[in-house]
Amino acid sequence: MEQQNKSKNITWQSGEVSRAQRYRNMQQSGATLWLTGLSGAGKSTLAFHLEQRLLQMGLKSYVLDGDNIRHGLSSNLGFAPEDRTENIRRVGEVCRLMADAGLIVLSSFISPFREDRHRVRAAHQTAGLAFVEIFVDTPLALCEQRDPKGLYGKARRGEIRDLTGIDSPYEVPEAPELTLTPEGSPLDNCDRVIGLLWQHGIISA
Ligand SMILES: Nc1ncnc2c1ncn2[C@@H]1O[C@H](COP(=O)(O)OP(=O)(O)O)[C@@H](O)[C@H]1O
Ligand SMILES: [Mg+2]
User: Fold this and answer.
1) pLDDT digits (tens, 9 = 90+) for 100-140
2) Other residues' Cβ atoms within 10 Å of the Cβ of residue 71
3) Of the residues 44, 61, 74, 111, which is catalytic?
4) pTM: predicted TM-score of the whole model, two decimal places
5) Looking at ligand 1, which atom is closest to the CA of residue 110?
6) Residue 152 CA to ligand 1 centre (angstroms)
7) Residues 6 or more apart in contact with residue 196 via CB below 8 angstroms
8) Dihedral of the alpha carbons of 141, 143, 147, 149, in degrees to the nearest 10
9) What is the pLDDT of residue 64?
10) Is 111 among the residues known to form the active site?
11) How far is the CA of 147 from the centre of ligand 2 (A)?
């Protein structure tokens, strides 16, 4: 990730086990599947369905989910733009580490800023790691109608601020590998993503 290191006195240490050896040991290749979309779009639902499906296929995956990460790794961050950027930078780094370790990482964050998502993609590419961006393209009106956490109601009543789509921007992905529209059920979407993983050689026979 193109970032300035605060510390100058650091040297990269190479291990003895190569990524190829790790992947052979894991009997799969690591990758990051990046789900992006508004709150209520269906990212978590899809990520958890996918985790279940991959497990049934004998594959090893792990979900990094927005709300859960804010309970721990990002518990010191809020929803101001710079905090959102830092959240995605951190999570992007964790994805990169997990994908390097050989896991199929299912990342489910609103990740509203194009540049933040791009930085995570570029960091994966630089490191030779597979990265697939999936836009869960559910229109705001439908997300607001679903409002499973009551956030849109609170935002409309002025009880909370910085909600993406209401008073904080969402920058639509320009070239995601897959766009999912609300016509598909969670299971349909799951099938489409599994198809995409085959297509990209992330899973193979
Ligand atoms: N494909 C879908 N079709 C219909 N409803 C869905 C679909 N995916 C998710 N939902 C519903 O939408 C709501 C929001 O889903 P969630 O996965 O929590 O969204 P996000 O993680 O993007 O905020 C939930 O009530 C969920 O059951
Ligand atoms: Mg969610």
Assistant:
1) 999 999 999 999 999 999 999 999 999 999 999 999 999 99
2) 9
3) 111
4) 0.96
5) 22
6) 14
7) 132, 134, 177, 178
8) -150
9) 98
10) yes
11) 11
How far is Cα 109 from Cα 79, in angstroms, rounded to an integer? 12
Burial class (CB in 10 A: 0-12, 13-18, 19+), 9: exposed
For ligand 1, atom 6, name the residue with the nearest CA. 42
Residue 162: which residues within 8 A CB-CB, separation 6 or more?
Answer: 78, 79, 80, 168
Best CA proximity match to 180, nearest among 40, 33, 42, 32: 42
| Beta partners for residue 134, in sequence order | 35, 178
Q: What is the pLDDT of residue 1?
A: 43
Residue 107 sits at φ, ψ, to 5 deg, of: -105, 125
C-alpha to C-alpha distance for 72 and 76, rounded to whole angstroms: 8
Q: How far apart are CA 107 and CA 94, in angstroms?
A: 10
Q: What is the pLDDT of residue 5?
A: 85
Query: Six-digit token pair at 22?
Result: 């790790």
DSSP 54: H
Closest CA to 132 of 172, 171, 179, 170: 179
Question: CB-based contacts of 195: which residues, under 8 Å, 6+ apart?
Answer: none
> How many residues are given for the chain?
205
